[in-house]
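Fig. S4 source data, part A: sequence.
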Amino acid sequence: MKYIFERNPDTGDIFRREFNNYSKREKINNNMEMKSLYDYLGHAAGPELGQEVATAARKAGVKGEIREVSNPKYRGPVMLWPKAFLDLYFRGGLNEGTSGKQLLKG
């Protein structure tokens, strides 16, 4: 079954509905699993890819969070993104027409 995930831009609430079914939707807990690019990819993403993801998130109305990390290779802030957004981004599901209204498809 395919789902569309939509975000209410006024409240930030996330809703899920079946693809092509506009009559029923369910509210998804707003505490979505957040992941850094390193956690998601299993390796350092680098600043260029990080900027590309941040730009796509901003265009789609997706809000990230910041986490401070400290390890032998890096110390400082990293961005966290909803895992569902990263799934969509890396599967090529985002395009210029993606907005906060039609946020995630999975």
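Fig. S4 source data, part B ends here. Confidence is low (pLDDT under 50) at residues 96-106.
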